[in-house]
Specification:
The protein is mainly β. The protein is built from no helices and nine strands. It has a single domain, classed as Rieske [2Fe-2S] iron-sulphur domain (Rieske Iron-sulfur Protein, 3-layer Sandwich).
């Protein structure tokens, strides 16, 4: 399957029940060094769940939805990395994603991307919604 283009990052401030731009989601130190933290916005069919992943000194955020069938990725609450802590892993069908880009490198949605979420990490170590 030829690679697809990564979708534009989701702006949480554009969600009907999302946080305003510049609102603090959490502090970096609230997330374990190779852990994640989930957040839900909205309700019912408009609910969006995102996760903020800390990995190798970086902070990335994605919508918690596999591009293959739309199921959540985490195999346990706030657990998104494979056993080697090298890739994000979809617990439903085993799709493997590059942590930094969200690109699926193996599995049923190979070549597709996770939906990234626009965040900012401040010098004070706060993860902010955009």
């Amino acid at each position: 399957m030829p690679p697809t283009f990564a979708p534009e990052p989701l702006l949480l401030s554009e969600l009907s029940d999302g946080p305003t731009a510049g609102k603090e989601l959490c502090e970096v130190n609230d997330i374990p060094p190779t852990g994640a933290r989930c957040f839900r916005f909205g309700s019912g069919e408009t609910q969006v769940e995102i996760f903020v992943q800390r990995w190798r000194g970086h902070i990335v955020a994605y919508v918690n939805r596999c591009p293959h069938v739309g199921s959540p990725l985490d195999w346990q609450p706030d657990r998104f990395l494979d056993a080697n802590k090298e890739h994000l892993l979809c617990a439903t069908h085993g799709a493997v994603f590059d942590v930094m880009t969200g690109h699926c490198v193996s599995g049923p949605c190979e070549g597709q991307f996770l939906q990234s979420v626009a965040i900012e990490v401040t010098d004070a170590g706060k993860v902010m919604a955009l």
